[in-house]
Amino acid sequence: MISGFETEMVRANVELAEAAVILRNGGTVAFPTETVYGLGANALDPQAVARIFEIKQRPRFDPLIVHVSSVAQGQQVVREWPDTARELVRRFWPGPLTLVLPKADVIPDIVTAGLPTVALRMPAHPLALALITEAGVPVAAPSANRFGSISPTTSAHVRMQLGEAVDRVIDGGPCRVGIESTVVALAEDGPMLLRAGGTPVEEIERLIGPVQRPGVDPDRPASPGQLARHYACRTPLSVCEDEREAPVFPRSGLLTLRPPLKRAGFEAVEVLSEMGDLREAAANLFAALYRLDALGLDRIVAVKVPDVGLGRAINDRLRRAAHEASEPTGADLP
Ligand code: TXA
Ligand code: MG
Q: What is the CATH number of the domain that holds 316?
């Protein structure tokens, strides 16, 4: 007798094997990671990677993260593997940490947008790792959303944004971390934080010492991920320091870390974590934004969270979601 569980396992394996073939043949597969869903293609195949930009409708070629299923596979696509990389990888891989290192020739220019460096990470998700292993190639993948929109943390979000454009969507349920990886460049003049994310920078510094944090200058992004307006919802969004200062608009929704003192005046309230846990809040952030955005409100008011640990990444995403359409977007950059 074959149990329902075994049938499920067989189905999951067949699905993964099919998706791996799609990747090897130059197709695109959306897959779950612990951070957000990625839109993947064979990182060694420039035409397959071009499909990603087409599907995402990116106004320009932004560099993509190359996902690997082992450290050895990562070492094959870079020219250098400094001691800092070794230490960071030993501690944080698989996990939400992306390292930017000098690229090897096997990585086509379209992946790195012509930069001499490549961003690398090994995701902590069994389906992602199995898919990359089965495909046998490194997988280039940005978040599986249209350019500038909210990152997807469920397969439903992916389908909503990309629909039929992608060859296959693998469902792995909601993402555990819920916010993109931390991006650190290991440049000659020391490590530099390019994007706050799922690995708190404090934890990185505890291991390797100080990490430079360039001021966020929206006109001169250190990496394209620093674009001022990103993670936008259709509904205008304001960020305030404290719930008590939350401006009251007609037909507005409140996004807050902990249960609010008063709900009056808001048509909808999204609480990111009943206990105020920043890890739980990060995991819920994008799904809560999707829900509020779907209500067709006049405004979303988001209350800043404490600026420590994952709180930095959450505040960073809120700040960018708050920029109005008149502010610089990717299309406006030089
Ligand atoms: O958690 C994540 O990182 C997710 C999942 C799918 O792995 N991926 C993701 O990819 O967020 P994307 O394309 O949305 O963001 C990639 C970030 C951007 O900020 C990009 O500018 C930066 O990495 N990046 C990529 N390659 C770079 C490079 N060579 N130099 C500097 N920044 C780079
Ligand atoms: Mg993205």
A: 3.40.50.11030
Give me the count of residues in the chain: 334
pTM recorded for the entire structure: 0.86
For residues 28 and 121, membership in a common domain is answered with yes
Q: What are the backbone dihedrals phi and psi of residue 7, each rounded to the nearest 5 degrees, phi first?
A: -60, -45
* 51 within 8 A of 40, measured Cβ to Cβ: no
Give residue 264's domain range. Answer: 237-323
How far apart (Å, rounded) are the C-alpha atoms in residues 30 and 65?
14
Please identify, by atom number, the ligand 1 atom nearest to the C-alpha of residue 225. 19
Q: Name the nearest CA neighbour of 96 among 216, 206, 218, 180.
A: 180
- Which residue puts its alpha carbon closest to atom 24 of ligand 1? 63
Which pLDDT score, from 0 to 100, does residue 222 have?
A: 55
Q: Mapping DSSP to helix (H, G, I), strand (E, B) and coil, where does residue 172 land?
A: coil
If asked whether residues 78 and 202 sit together in one domain, one would say yes
CATH number of the CATH domain containing 75? 3.90.870.10
Q: What's the pLDDT tens digit per position in 291-315?
A: 999 999 999 999 999 999 899 999 9
Per-residue pLDDT tens digits for 226-281: 555 566 788 999 999 988 887 777 899 999 999 988 777 899 999 999 999 999 99
Instruction: Answer whether residue 162 is part of any domain.
Output: yes
Residue list, ligand 1 pocket, CB within 6 Å: 33, 35-36, 38, 62-65, 96, 98, 100, 112, 115, 117-119, 121, 123, 141-143, 180-181, 183, 194-195, 223-225
> Closest ligand 1 atom, CA of 144?
6
Cβ pair 197, 58 in contact under 8 A: no
- Count of domains forming the chain: 2
Residues 193 and 290 in one domain: no
Q: How many angstroms is it from 275 CA to the middle of ligand 1?
A: 31
Q: Round to whole Å and give the CA distance between 116 and 80.
A: 12
Mutate to test the pocket of ligand 1, among 55, 64, 166 (most ligand atoms within 8 A of CB): 64
